[in-house]
Design goal:
- A hairpin with a 2-residue loop joins strand 2 and strand 3.
- Strands 1-3-2 form a 3-stranded antiparallel β-sheet.
- With 113 residues, it is of the alpha+beta class.
C-alpha cells in the first residue's frame, strides 16, 4: 500500500477508532467493536472489510467468531504511524469512552492468540 492510500484509509474516524482498539486489544470481533464504538453491525463490517481488503487487518476464524487483528508484515513506516495513533494522549482522551464500553461489555468472546 502506498502512503496516500494508507492515509486515505485512515481519513475515516470510525476506521481510526476501530484500528486503535484492535491494536490495543490485539484482537477483537465485530460484536465487541459495535458495542465499543456504538455503531451498527453492517457499518462496522463494511469498515472492517475495507481494512482487510487493503491488507491492514487479517481475520482469524474461531468457531462461530471472526476476530480481526493487525497484519504482522506491515512496513515499518506504517506500523510507526499506527502505533503513534494508539499511543497518542490526545486520541486516548477523545476516544476514552470506546475503551470503557469495551471493558464493561458482558460475555465477551475469547480471541485466539
Amino acid at each position: 500500500m502506498l502512503p496516500h492510500q494508507f492515509f486515505k484509509l485512515l481519513a475515516d474516524e470510525t476506521r481510526v477508532r476501530c484500528l486503535r482498539l484492535i491494536v490495543k486489544e490485539q484482537c477483537l470481533c465485530v460484536a465487541e467493536l459495535t458495542e465499543a464504538l456504538q455503531v451498527s453491525q453492517p457499518k462496522m463490517s463494511r469498515h472492517l472489510a475495507v481494512m482487510r481488503a487493503s491488507g491492514l487487518l487479517v481475520d482469524v476464524r474461531q468457531g462461530q467468531w471472526v476476530f480481526y487483528r493487525l497484519t504482522e508484515d506491515l512496513p515499518g513506516w506504517m506500523r510507526k504511524q499506527i502505533y503513534g495513533l494508539v499511543d497518542s494522549n490526545c486520541l486516548e482522551q477523545e476516544y476514552q469512552q470506546d475503551s470503557e464500553r469495551l471493558m464493561v461489555m458482558k460475555q465477551r468472546p475469547v480471541c485466539c492468540q
